[in-house]
Amino acid sequence: MKMVRRAVMDDIKDIFEWSNHPLSRKNSFRSEPIGWDEHRKWFAERLADHLTTIYILCSDENKLGSARFEEKKNGIRISVMLNPDYIGKRLGADLIRLATKRYIEEKNPGKHIIAEVKGDNMPSKKAFLRAGFKEAYTVYTYNRETGTDE
User: Fold this and answer.
1) CA separation (Å) from 145 to 31, 142, 149?
2) Which of 7, 14, 67, 74 has the least C-beta neighbours within 10 A?
């Protein structure tokens, strides 16, 4: 049975490894690898921040992925990441659905929950749609220096 629980400091190594997996870096808006010291500082700050909630999706003793909710002025941003061992097993929608349900139950937010997904990340787009999210708009970027979105 799958369930979500709050992330704790003991999850730091798993989140670090998942974050630096090549697919995670490719689909992230920041594609550079993350250093351990930077991650350790970031993770501790996120756990202590009352505007941030991180959940871990588990099945038995296995950690399947994480979902992070960060409250901003214009909404609540959700960011999800699967344990690389479970990529391609159609668990993304379960992670999103279960974490979002728990977040709403715990926080009763008065703002929209917003997911930003890179245009070519079809698995994440499909997972958010299967979890009940609706596409609201598309954003295009242009890099003046290169003439591309890179």
Assistant:
1) 19, 9, 10
2) 74
pLDDT digits (tens, 9 = 90+) for 103-114: 999 999 999 999
Q: How far apart are CA 94 and CA 71, in angstroms?
A: 22
Query: Which candidate, 25, 4, 1, places its Cα nearest to that of 97?
Result: 4
Number of H helices, E strands in the chain: 5, 5
Q: Which domains does the chain have, with CATH numbers?
A: 2-130 (3.40.630.30)
Strands 75-82 vs 113-115: parallel, antiparallel or unpaired: parallel
Contact indicator for 77, 114 with CB cutoff of 8 Å: yes
